[in-house]
Amino acid sequence: APAEPVRVPRHATVVNHRALFSNYTFIIAGGGIAGLTLADRLTEDPNVSVLVIEAGPLDPGLDGILVPGAYAPYYYFWPNLASVPQAGLNNRTSGAITAQVVGGGSTINAMVYLRGDVDDYNAWGALGNPGWSWQNMLPYFKKAETFTAPDAAFAATANISWDDSVRGHSGPVQYSYPNYFYPGSANWWNAANEIGLPAVEDPLAGSKQGVFWIPSALDASTMTRSHAGRNHYERVKDSRPNYHLLTSNVVAKVLFRGKTAIGVCYLPTSADGSTACPSNVYANKEVILAAGGFGTPKILQLSGVGPKKHLKKFGISHVVDLPGVGQNLQDQPTLAVSYTFTANKVPNYGSLLTNATYNAEQRALYDSSHQGAYTLISSLSSNIGVVSLQKATSSYQQIIAAAKARNPADSLPADVDPTVLKGYKAQREAILKQFASDSIGVGTVHWGTADEALVYHLKPLSRGTVNINSANPMANPLIDFRTGTDPADVAVYTALFRKNRELFAAPSMQALGPTEAAPFGAGLTTDEQIAAVMRDQINPSNAHQCCTAAMMPRALGGVVSSEQKVYGVQGLRVGDISAWPFQLSGAPMATVYASAERLADLIKKEHCLAGAC
Ligand SMILES: Cc1cc2nc3c(=O)[nH]c(=O)nc-3n(C[C@H](O)[C@H](O)[C@H](O)COP(=O)(O)OP(=O)(O)OC[C@H]3O[C@@H](n4cnc5c(N)ncnc54)[C@H](O)[C@@H]3O)c2cc1C
């Protein structure tokens, strides 16, 4: 079958099962951010055909997806995903959220559009990944995006600043800023300045210590969400007969001839999986996995690419023994801290929920002129602050010293493969260097302007796992975030909690009369007391799951090379967030778009596509 020539129909479209070709130049598993970016760029060459197989449907344009203030992501959550009991969080289980829809996370995420910092990409490079650095990524960040500046007068009153030279102006992903802020945001911003978190000129310039407006994946022409389904599929589909998207189907596994990937088998998302692989489709050149931080390692393991010992338990014969597949799971945990106020300002984001008149006014304003509170994603305000460990606590050196004194093996599952442990040691050294730097954030503070502050932990040292629990491709994997199993994470989080508390104690926030509410509260004064409550409150996930097919040398437990080729086989790459070695000081979306742009260029060059050689 792989030798059959590619037939190109007249219209690119979402195809149904019967309209599929039997073979394509490339097959991409997962139509999320990475998958659709790759498909768009590869089909620029009319001689290439690409099939994307996506487990979810196309969003028909629901309000809760497109209108930020009406945000309702749960329509497209992957069903029934949850973690196992979390040993570091008093054995609580938690939901594990990831998207199942065309556009993946970009269709349902909170639209926060941030890059990592300079040392994030440099450190990935230093882990044995030539070609990865901030300098190398910057052109791809720009290529990926189009920034629309806010109205100049509004920007001046609202403290929005940016450096146009680091922003892209002609890429498919649209981003801008909401054109409204709640009055309480100004108190929060001033309070941040009062505790030594300055205004950052541009958080996308490679360092963002301080406070800034959150760039948002908003199409400024309509003030609606710019998601990958729109910017990397709908934008080009009518002119690309060579771009096929099969929705509501799940890739069960990669098909191999010897050690060469030749295609995939797939089945409808509605199937029960008892008859595995009813349908096959073949790739002439490559299969690319882009099924996200949970989906990609699952497909690899089901395909016989993973820890041999684990696969054996399910009767899966291994194609290549790669112990790192499904290890190294990381997320960016979140913590909500509740407050009551004696003098909070209205309107705040709670007003949309509690005041029907205000809500109706704001909706009418948005519908008529794309202005007002509905341009803000609900539950977030316009500002956020990023904090290095040094800024968070004067005890940062003690935290680093304690982390260095710990045996890294104690932070991983007992049966860890020696290569994975070696890779973790290398990562740990890189991250501890970042802890000592004042130019890399370890966490963020945020206040939505109503009854809750949010504290995010960006740089965990704890490592989890995602492993299949059945050979049935429809069964969800076992997800163990292992949040808080490394004591340094709890110490860092406690410091971030205290930074948030300091911010609320600053004069500009005190003017609103806040009281930290239960289960926290002023009665908790020691680190131990705070940490004990945090273990009951931390949410292990911000839906930023990553790093489960990590890009590192094989001797360090890596799964893919710096060109994102899976070790030990041919014709198979990982194109998505699974390939990251460790979390960024920032949210993932912009980097997933940009690194898929980078990978598309590498693939074009290697196969001489679209005049690339
Ligand atoms: C609710 C939510 C809020 C978030 N908020 C933000 C934010 O504000 N800012 C930010 O930067 N990031 C945010 N994120 C995270 C960000 O969206 C993800 O990190 C990003 O989408 C990852 O990109 P990806 O291409 O690796 O995977 P995804 O975009 O998740 O795409 C993977 C796709 O693969 C599909 N898939 C999985 N398994 C299979 C299979 N076997 N066969 C076929 N298809 C499959 C899935 O349905 C999905 O569409 C959020 C995520 C969520 C879910």
TrEMBL record:
Residue positions binding FAD: V101, N109, A110, M111, V112, V251
Residue ranges constituting the Glucose-methanol-choline oxidoreductase C-terminal domain according to the UniProt record: 460-596
Necessary cofactors: FAD
Any GO molecular function: flavin adenine dinucleotide binding
One family name in Pfam for this protein: GMC_oxred_C
Domain Glucose-methanol-choline oxidoreductase N-terminal residues, every copy: 24-333
InterPro entries: FAD/NAD-bd_sf, GMC_OxRdtase, GMC_OxRdtase_N, GMC_OxRtase_C
UniProt keyword list: FAD, Flavoprotein, Signal
Family from the record: Belongs to the GMC oxidoreductase family.
Protein name per UniProt: Uncharacterized protein
